[in-house]
Amino acid sequence: MPVRTVSSKTAIPSQSKVKDNKIHPTALVDDGAKIGKGTSVWHFAHICSGAVIGENCSLGQNVLVSDNAILGNSVKVQNNVAIYGGVTVEDDVFLGPSCVLTNVTNPRSQVVRRSLYEATLIKRGATIGANATIVCGITLGKYCFVGAGAVVTKDVPEYGLILGNPGRLKGYMSRHGHPLRFDDEGKGRCPESGYLYRKSGDEVRCEDLSEEAPLPDDLAVGSRNYEFFKNA
Hints:
Blueprint lengths: L3 E3 L14 E3 L4 E2 L4 E2 L4 E2 L4 E2 L4 E2 L4 E2 L4 E2 L4 E2 L4 E2 L4 E2 L3 E3 L4 E2 L4 E2 L18 E3 L4 E2 L4 E2 L4 E2 L4 E2 L4 E2 L7 E4 L4 E5 L14 E3 L6 E5 L2 E4 L19 H5 L2
Parallel strand pairs: 2-5, 3-6, 4-7, 5-8, 6-9, 7-10, 8-11, 9-12, 10-13, 11-14, 13-16, 14-17, 15-18, 16-19, 17-20, 18-21, 20-22
Antiparallel strand pairs: 1-2, 22-23, 24-25, 25-26
């Protein structure tokens, strides 16, 4: 089935200047949804009225973005992910296949809590692995990395690596997704980028590039897989 390029007049009438979105013919985009330019919405996705999606995002098959959910720019959402109202996803976040986001801690079918959704914030550059569950009302720090199948119930620090059920902090990951090994001075270097990171207490910062800055072009495309750098 072909992918059509649509304008605001056909797919998102509330957004007057959006061009060059790719919306698959099976996807449903409700009036009142806002989608930035360059964003692709694939098979059987549903973007609800009131959803806000930034530029250059990719939303995979069977993705739901509910009203009052917000996605920043360059967000990659893999297949079978539901992003409910109350969830804010900042720029450059990766949401892995079938990961679960929630918005009520104590749901009951008999009790209506539509006005009581709990806010969840997923900050810039974070990764959530396949089948991980994020319990609502928490903040996932910039560039944190949640492993596949983890269940996250507490705030996650920037660059923090969370594994298991319940999810526990097992270390820290670089912006390129490699474990950081810190020396006695709290210094660690990413084996792929060569960037230096510094750890002080539970706080990790990149010394060579601002957390808000994009990666330079020569580091924005991987050249070797994870195994190559594993023992570097």
